[in-house]
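Internal tracking record. Fields below are filled automatically when a chain is submitted to the structure queue. Please do not edit lines marked as system-generated. If the sequence contains nonstandard residues, flag them in the REMARKS field before resubmitting.
Queue: standard
Priority: normal
Entity type: single polypeptide chain
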Amino acid sequence: GFQAKAATRLLEALQAGQAGRALAEELAATFVKVWGLTPEAAQRIRALLAACRSNAEFRASVLARGSAGVRALVSEDPRCWAGESLKRKREEWERAGLAEAAPGPQGGVERPCPECGGRAICTT
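SYSTEM-GENERATED OUTPUT FOLLOWS
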């Protein structure tokens, strides 16, 4: 079922041949044990697959940690598995989003709110 399919895909993503089979099976089993057969488990496994395929440094660290690192890996935030370039892009997206959401000079004047005394941008 799900666990066997996940183990097969993890084996391919780890690119370690038969040497990675036990690690892939343990990873899949631990994901199911910790997260259950839930959409979140599937999403986390997909994130791990993508990270292993696209980030050689991360893939090597997963293989180096081996069985001893499985439990910690399964509990980590998948965002930390990204490569440095993706992490930089995410930071840029976050800054851009915050800049869009932050009030700025939008043609109005900042004045005290007559109702609550806070600051408000008034257009008149």
